């Protein structure tokens, strides 16, 4: 619906009916009227560029109109455009209710830049993203001082109209992959897009899979290192998290500390994470399979100790393991949701008091307590919380199969998991790359961190035409 000039102020006010936080201020006997949200504007900008200058002007239309012709003011002709500007932190200025101008005064209060609590590092950068899109972009721009770093804005949410900034480096990114990301975002039909971890689930290729399909990070240095590999990064306004695409399974095992330390230490740490992956996934299930069906696999000395520890336990190994795993998950969730000091107390009470009491009461064996504890500790080694949570789900499935079919069930579960990983894709690129399809040299670089300068090839998954790295420090996650 088109608006006449006389109805601009009225239509805008009607659009914001029942918005008690909308501020309406009049000057010059209502010759000038301002509309804005105090929570979205910078008070200093408002006072210095709007309030004080207009108060000092002569009380006549020619003087006011002449001042409004300055470049910081933009003439707007429709109430719909005025509404959108006000919601984006602009101040709308109405002259005699017949002319409308806006000025950008966006400046809501934001928290300061701090260290990420979910992606901590021992050495290296300690900056993390915050909820301000402009500030997050500045953290990336400071690290990539080049015009080849491109930013494309895409709007998400029919009601929220959140802005997603897609970042890529010109000449490194595959434009077809970039077009796919844009198309996926444009195809999202949702009223409100709240945060990146929720948003990436809306653009998954396989929404019913329990595996995370996009790397999410709060660290600008991680974003920059992946941009150098030809990947695409997405940052959403009001979200402290960025997503990276395309992503493969092995990306979830990489940490900034791998690059910041000597290559031997970084490689050993990555191998340790791979070992922790197998431990947290199979250790409890293997215990259930052995104690249920395969006693012959246990050394004689250990068999006597195990039989003694299970002598008074009334439950089967399967039920016993499920009880302890569920208890561990309850303690984990309780510790995460409660305040820090109380959460630490819950962990101590749950891990020591409850575990010891359960053994003394004969409800579980002390051997299982050790097995479950090792599996839980191994899950904390994962640098990505998303992959750690997914492995916990897979672990329960393997425990059930091991309790029903023994080692055969465990083997079937592992095969099904590998088959599932091999069938997944991210932006039409193989999720299990470089294991499937098999690229032996690239797989070695995904697991080990070779010395800088010894590998100058970007990963094949990004489909970049510029496959040679310039060997600059920290630019490739496969170095």
From TrEMBL:
Compartment(s) of residence: Cell membrane; Membrane
Bilayer disposition of the protein: Multi-pass membrane protein
Transmembrane segments: 271-293, 369-391, 398-421
Classification via InterPro entries: Spore_Ger, UPF0353/GerABKA_families
The organism's place on the tree of life at top rank: Bacteria
The keyword Nucleotidyltransferase belongs to this UniProt entry's keyword annotation: no
Keyword field: Membrane, Transmembrane, Transmembrane helix
Any Gene Ontology CC annotation: plasma membrane
Any Pfam family the entry gives: GerA
Record keyword Membrane present: yes
Protein known as: Spore germination protein
Organism, as annotated: Salibacterium salarium
């Amino acid at each position: 619906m088109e608006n006449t000039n006389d109805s601009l102020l009225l239509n805008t006010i009607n659009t914001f009916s029942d918005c008690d936080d909308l501020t309406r201020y009049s000057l010059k006997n209502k010759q000038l009227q301002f509309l804005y949200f105090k929570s979205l504007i910078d008070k200093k900008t408002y006072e210095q560029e709007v309030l004080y200058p207009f108060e000092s002007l002569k009380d006549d239309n020619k003087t006011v109109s002449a001042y409004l012709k300055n470049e910081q003011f933009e003439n707007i002709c429709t109430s719909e455009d005025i509404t959108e500007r006000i919601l984006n932190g602009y101040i709308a200025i109405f002259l005699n209710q017949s002319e409308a101008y806006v000025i950008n005064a966006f400046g809501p209060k934001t928290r300061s830049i701090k260290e990420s609590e979910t992606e901590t590092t021992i050495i290296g950068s300690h900056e993390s993203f915050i909820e301000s899109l402009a500030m997050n972009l500045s953290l990336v721009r400071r690290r990539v001082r080049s015009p080849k770093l491109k930013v494309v804005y895409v709007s998400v949410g029919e009601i929220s109209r959140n802005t997603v900034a897609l970042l890529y480096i010109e000449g490194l990114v595959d434009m077809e992959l970039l077009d796919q990301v844009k198309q996926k975002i444009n195809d999202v039909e949702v009223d409100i897009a709240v945060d990146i971890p929720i948003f990436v689930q809306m653009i998954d290729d396989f929404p019913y899979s329990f595996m995370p399909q996009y790397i999410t990070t709060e660290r600008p240095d991680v974003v920059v290192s992946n941009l150098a590999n030809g990947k695409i990064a997405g940052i959403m306004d009001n979200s402290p998290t960025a997503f990276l695409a395309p992503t493969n399974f092995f990306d979830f095992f990489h940490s900034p500390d791998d690059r910041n330390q000597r290559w031997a230490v970084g490689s050993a740490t990555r191998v340790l994470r791979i070992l922790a992956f197998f431990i947290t996934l199979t250790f409890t299930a293997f215990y259930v399979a052995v104690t249920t069906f395969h006693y012959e696999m246990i050394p004689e000395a250990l068999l006597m100790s195990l039989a003694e520890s299970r002598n008074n336990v009334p439950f089967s190994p399967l039920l016993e393991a499920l009880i302890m795993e569920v208890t561990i998950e309850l303690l984990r969730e309780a510790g995460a949701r409660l305040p820090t000091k109380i959460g630490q107390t819950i962990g101590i009470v749950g891990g020591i008091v409850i575990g010891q009491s359960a053994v003394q009461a004969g409800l579980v064996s002390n051997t299982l307590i050790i097995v479950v504890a090792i599996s839980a500790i191994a899950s904390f080694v994962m640098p990505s919380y998303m992959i750690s949570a997914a492995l916990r789900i897979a672990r329960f499935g393997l425990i059930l199969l091991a309790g029903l079919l023994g080692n055969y069930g465990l083997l079937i579960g592992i095969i099904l998991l590998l088959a599932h990983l091999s069938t997944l894709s991210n932006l039409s690129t193989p999720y299990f790359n470089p294991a499937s399809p098999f690229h032996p040299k690239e797989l070695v670089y995904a697991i080990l961190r070779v010395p800088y300068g010894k590998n100058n090839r970007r990963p094949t998954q990004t489909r970049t035409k510029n496959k040679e790295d310039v060997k600059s420090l920290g630019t490739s996650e496969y170095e």
